[in-house]
Amino acid sequence: MCKQRLILYHLKKCSPDLRRTAEDKRIDQPGPGGDFPQHQKEKKNKYKKRKNRKVKKVILRFGLIIVCFLIIIINICGYSVVGNLKYDIYYLKKELRQEEIRLDELKAKVDTNSSIREIEEKAKEELNMDYLKKNQIRYIEVEN
């Protein structure tokens, strides 16, 4: 009886387990690189994670560079617009000054013209003055 048990135990140990799946059997056998398949999967997963991290870092860096570049371009365009507006403002102020000077000159002309007219009208109405007639004019000769 002991011999039978020993033989059955030995047979169970050496005989393949029919309940094990094909994947379980592969896990227990070393792969071509000498590693077990489960270990190879872990290495692949780590490699993929590292690769994904590298790709994300590259994309993040590239995105930051693009954002910085866009900010610089927007600033340059803003300064260009501001410069053009300052240029326009300068020439508009210059033109305004010229127009104000011209307006002052025209006002001075109007004031001089209207004041002469006013003086003439005052002289005629209030002082009864009028232009001289030809017979009222006398010429005087002065000797040196």
H-E string: HHH
Rg, alpha carbons: 56 Å
Number of helical segments?
3
| Strand percentage | under 5%
Low-confidence stretches: none
Largest sheet, described in full? none
Overall SS class: mainly alpha
Helix content: over 70%
What spatial form do the alpha-carbon principal axes imply?
rod-shaped
β-strand number: 0
* N-to-C span: 180 Å
Task: Name the average pLDDT.
Answer: 79
Describe this structure in words.
The chain is mainly alpha-helical and 144 residues long. It has three helices and no strands. The protein starts with a helix and ends in a 19-residue tail after the last helix.
Q: Which helices and strands occur, and which strands form pairs?
A:
Blueprint lengths: L1 H13 L7 H7 L8 H89 L19
Task: Please give a handful of descriptors for the protein shown.
rod-shaped, mainly alpha, 144 residues, 3 helices, single chain
